[in-house]
Amino acid sequence: MKVKMSNFLNNTKPSIKKLIKNLSKDFKYVSVLGSDVCGKLYSVQRTGISIQDSFWSERGFVVKVYNGISYSEISFNEINENEIESISENIRKKVKGQIQSLKNKVNINAYDLINEEKIEKTFIGEVKVLPEQISDKEIVEKMISIKDKAFSLSDFLIDLRVRYQQVHVSKIFISNNKDLAQSYIWSEGSIFSIVRRENKTKYSYSPFSGLKASELLEEISEKVDETVDISIKLLDSKPVTPGEYECICSPDVSGIIAHEAFGHGVEMDMFVKNRAKAAEYMDKEIASPLVTMHDGAASAVDVSSYLFDDEGVLGTDTVVIDKGILKKGISDTLSALKLATTPTGNGKRQSFERKAYSRMTNTYFAAGSSKLEDMIASIEFGYLLDCPMSGMEDPKNWGIQCMVNYGLEIKNGKLTGNIVSPVVLTGYVPDLLKSISMVSDKVELCGSGACGKGYKEFVKVSSGGPYIKAKVRLG
Predict the structure, then answer these.
(1) Distance CA 15, CA 8 (A)
(2) Are 306 and 262 in contact (CB under 8 A)?
(3) How confident is the model over 414-432, as pLDDT tens digits?
(4) For residues 102-126, b (16+ Cβ closer than 10 Å) or e, as one string?
(5) Which residues have a Cβ under 8 Å from the Cβ of 206 and sit 6 or more positions away?
(6) Strand, helix or coil at 373?
(7) pLDDT at 171
């Protein structure tokens, strides 16, 4: 069913266009991003139930103007047709004050004028069940049934946490040349199984996401048995012996490698700040010829797929690595202006009150031609790594570290049933990527978490890929 566009934003479009016309008398570039995002986060576990507003909820506007040197932004919550003149005058005063204040304190980075093509486009998403067609009570009841199903599987289970979030995104972007609108729903969820035997406690989880609504709960329900089973097997796990191994990384693990290795590393605002080593390696070999990596709102369909970014640039499919060669970075508008490149539609804000940065969208390795069973059969001794927990990367020096919940032992080309946990995957990014020797023929993505710029400025992203075989250092 078609998602509904925000009435709030539709009703404000005439006022926004008047505001842009008024401000254009003094500024050579004027644009307005309007956001109306609403959602709910549901949690069910043994000890209780929680329903709260989504972290991503927001409603408001940000005006961007060219101040003659750079770009100024002013955000506000409401716009009234009868107050256009006073709003315009307030913006003029704030921009003038900003420039005068900064000129006395810092050197302001100069930027060229944004050159926009005339574009008028709208995207309206579709889901199976619209949020207004299902009540909170029905959603919670479905989640309780998932929890109860898990507790029927094992006496070792001490808690089963079910999490589900659905978010309805409506945004408009208007300038003198652009009139863009989009409305879609994304959802995410997870099941987190905690088991205990005697004094040993272990856990496992399964994530879910997509441009979907409550139909995602059916997918969550189908994965309960497997998630609980893995958590129980972890009770017999042992620590991994540190060393270098031939490993197979699951799509979730290959996704976190893609995200950390050359996701953050090719965010081009880091190029402007001289904080990314990747800038020195464009058109050079940095990975196995089997490795092709994509990023872009138009490259896949998941939580970070959209028509246009938060600066009104249409989403694209950026081939970051092409058969082992580093080809391109991902950019917001200002970093593209500074570097004289074309923006890739990766300008994203945590909210309308925040600055836009170069940010990842759907980041993943492309599929190869190998079969998983052949990949396992090719390993004399190693591990199949799954269930990533977190990751870190140093864009300046190309170090990477990923926390993985467990590894399934492989000996003589077969899974032995032995399991190690937890596992830390570390290494030098080019060494890791150049060691990739097999890539499976199917890509899987997930966007159940969020990505911060450093330690803040969170946005939704997805990552993934096929199974990949590589030599990695484990600890």
Answers:
(1) 12
(2) no
(3) 999 999 999 999 999 999 9
(4) eeeeeeeeeeeebeeeeeeeebebe
(5) 190, 191, 220, 223, 226, 227
(6) helix
(7) 98
Q: How much is the pLDDT for 263?
A: 86
Helix/strand/coil for 436: coil
Token reading at 415? 């899974």
What is the CB-side half-sphere exposure of residue 26 using CA atoms within 13 A? 14
Q: How many other C-beta atoms are found inside a 10 Å radius of the C-beta of residue 475?
A: 13
Domain range list for the chain: 7-103+120-236, 243-474
- Give helix 136-151 / helix 224-233 axis angle, nearest 10°: 40
CATH number of the domain located at residue range(s) 7-103+120-236 in this protein = 3.30.2290.10
| Positive or negative torsion for Cα 101, 103, 104, 109 | positive
At residue 84, the 3 state secondary structure works out as helix
N-to-C CA span, the chain: 48
Report residue 206 as tokens: 């399964």
* Residue whose structure tokens are 């890929």: 465
Q: What's residue 318's pLDDT?
A: 98
Backbone angles phi, psi at 379, to 5 degrees: -100, 125
Q: Which residue has the tokens 């302001």?
A: 108
Which residues of the chain register pLDDT less than 50? none
Q: How far apart are CA 244 and CA 474, in angstroms?
A: 6
Give the alpha-carbon dihedral of 139, 142, 147, 150, to 10 degrees.
-150
- What is the per-residue pLDDT for 444? 98
- DSSP for 179-198 reads EEEEEEEEEEEEEEEEEEET
